[in-house]
């Protein structure tokens, strides 16, 4: 029998936090993880000559100026609540990650992705594709203009709903710093019930996936402002000293 | 404190894959090799919604890469892709409905004889790193430290001249499951 939300909530409550910052890959309440996580321990690589301590680079040819404004990609304006999401990409020592690629994707204001495998019967918006890109500036800053995505149902369990979120993909100075994650909005009652967010079992780590509403970032008559800073993992202090310019 | 990972989910299709993402080799380079394979889950079933990224040294040993993997048309924003001149070192491909992927690249140099691979998928909450070695490399520290059956999961099989098969098994018995890696700060 398909579990309901109460059953999933009880499963999530029974998982003991393991002290890790990242989700454990085999997280029972997220059913799709069952066959998609390794059982063997990861093998630790400490070789300072590893290729993974360097990484791909991107430049102005890889983005266009319009890419960071998801509301201006079509002839008309998308429906929904206009927002900006801005912040900085930093390494673990707090140094900015500059000139690197930030990619985002999201559902429209009704909770529907422009993707043919999304069968949620909420309306598509012909003026919104939900895809954005930018390069971080010399302070590690990024900024997107978009609409607030809607919550959407999924089939993890009966009456399962994903809280509103924006998917983010980030590159650091090294391939080993690669990060794909999701940004959530403050005060959403669905946070308590979402097995993907709660796969991060450490409460303070989970809070770092939630953006802040910052009134000073709101623009009068235009948009609400959210701030979300991102800190990339990886033993970057040692690596950056090896002379990599970025 | 680091930002936690979350799954790439099923709907990255318009955002991450790009035209010619698997064409890492410059156009017409006679050294070009093909690396291809299937991504499978714990049941051995193909994973049709995985995304793979590749990063490697250039044949001359340089690791600086180059911009231009997803070069854009300034007029309409369409992805033009690589200019066929620079070796960017970076590739990105989604698996197809059969769980298959393929990239065409230049052979990595002897001092780093592998393609670094990152795997993302719906159901995978935190991406996985692995490596595709193009031959069993005597003297490679990582390979040397692995038991023989585990080591074999990192070595691509040469199918014919210039074509290598490299399958990824996300979950399985020790001899089946691909060796996945994590990178720590070098000691000392
Ligand atoms: Fe999503």
TrEMBL record, chain A:
Protein's UniProt name: Protocatechuate 3,4-dioxygenase beta chain
Keyword Oxidoreductase appears in the UniProt entry: yes
Record's keyword terms, sorted: Dioxygenase, Oxidoreductase
One GO-annotated biological process of the protein: 3,4-dihydroxybenzoate catabolic process
Pfam families listed in its UniProt record: Dioxygenase_C, PCDO_beta_N
Enzyme Commission code(s) on record: 1.13.11.3
Source species: Actinacidiphila bryophytorum
Enzyme class: oxidoreductase
The keyword rRNA processing is assigned to this record: no
Intradiol ring-cleavage dioxygenases domain segment(s): 85-113
Protein family per UniProt: Belongs to the intradiol ring-cleavage dioxygenase family.
Classification via InterPro entries: Intradiol_dOase_C, Intradiol_dOase_core, Intradiol_RC_Dioxygenase, PCDO_beta_N, Protocat_dOase_b
Positions of region (Disordered): 1-35
Automatic annotation (TrEMBL), chain B:
Residue ranges occupied by any Intradiol ring-cleavage dioxygenases domain in the UniProt entry: 10-109
Origin superkingdom: Bacteria
Listed Gene3D superfamilies: Aromatic compound dioxygenase
Alphabetical keyword list: Dioxygenase, Oxidoreductase
Top class in the EC scheme: oxidoreductase
MF terms (GO), sorted A to Z: ferric iron binding; protocatechuate 3,4-dioxygenase activity
EC number: 1.13.11.3
Transmembrane regions: none
Listed InterPro entries: Intradiol_dOase_C, Intradiol_dOase_core, Intradiol_RC_Dioxygenase, Protocat_dOase_a
Keyword Repeat among UniProt keywords: no
Tagged with keyword Transferase: no
Family: Belongs to the intradiol ring-cleavage dioxygenase family.
NCBIfam families assigned: protocat_alph (TIGR02423)
PANTHER family in UniProt: DIOXYGENASE, PUTATIVE (AFU_ORTHOLOGUE AFUA_2G02910)-RELATED, PROTOCATECHUATE 3,4-DIOXYGENASE ALPHA CHAIN
Name assigned to this protein: Protocatechuate 3,4-dioxygenase alpha chain
Organism of provenance: Actinacidiphila bryophytorum
């Amino acid at each position: 029998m398909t579990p309901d939300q109460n059953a999933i909530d009880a499963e999530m409550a029974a998982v003991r936090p393991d002290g890790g910052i990242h989700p454990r890959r085999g997280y029972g309440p997220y059913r799709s993880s069952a066959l998609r996580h390794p059982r063997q321990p990861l093998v630790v690589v400490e070789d300072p000559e590893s290729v993974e301590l360097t990484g791909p680079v991107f430049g102005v040819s890889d983005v266009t100026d319009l890419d960071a404004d998801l509301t201006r990609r079509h002839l008309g304006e998308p429906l929904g609540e206009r927002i900006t999401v801005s912040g900085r990409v930093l390494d673990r020592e707090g140094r900015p990650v500059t000139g690197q690629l930030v990619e985002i994707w999201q559902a429209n204001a009704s909770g529907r992705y422009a993707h043919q495998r999304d069968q949620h019967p909420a309306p598509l918006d012909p003026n919104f594709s939900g895809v954005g890109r930018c390069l971080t500036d010399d302070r590690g800053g990024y900024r997107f203009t978009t609409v607030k995505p809607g919550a959407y149902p999924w089939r993890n369990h009966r009456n399962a709903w994903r809280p509103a979120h924006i998917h983010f993909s980030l590159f650091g100075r090294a391939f080993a710093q690669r990060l794909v994650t999701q940004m959530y909005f403050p005060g959403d009652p669905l946070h308590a019930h979402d097995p993907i967010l709660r796969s991060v079992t450490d409460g303070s780590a989970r809070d770092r996936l939630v953006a802040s509403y910052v009134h000073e970032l709101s623009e009068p008559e235009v948009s609400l402002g959210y701030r979300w800073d991102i800190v990339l993992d990886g033993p970057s202090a040692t690596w950056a000293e090896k002379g990599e310019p970025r | 404190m680091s930002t936690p990972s979350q799954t790439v989910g099923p709907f990255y299709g318009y955002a991450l894959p790009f035209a010619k993402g698997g064409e890492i080799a410059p156009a017409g380079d006679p050294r070009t090799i093909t690396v291809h394979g299937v991504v499978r889950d714990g049941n051995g079933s193909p994973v049709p919604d995985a995304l793979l990224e590749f990063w490697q040294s250039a044949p001359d040993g340089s690791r600086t890469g180059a911009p231009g993997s997803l070069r854009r048309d300034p007029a309409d924003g369409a992805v033009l892709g690589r200019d066929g001149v620079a070796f960017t070192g970076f590739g990105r491909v989604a698996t197809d409905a059969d769980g298959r992927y393929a990239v065409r690249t230049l052979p990595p140099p002897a001092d780093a004889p592998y393609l670094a691979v990152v795997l993302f998928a719906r159901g995978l909450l935190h991406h996985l790193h692995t490596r595709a070695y193009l031959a069993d490399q005597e003297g490679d520290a990582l390979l040397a430290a692995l038991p023989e059956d585990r080591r074999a999961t990192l070595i691509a099989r040469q199918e014919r001249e210039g074509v290598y098969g490299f399958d990824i098994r996300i979950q399985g018995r020790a001899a089946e499951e691909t060796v996945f890696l994590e990178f720590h700060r070098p000691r000392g």
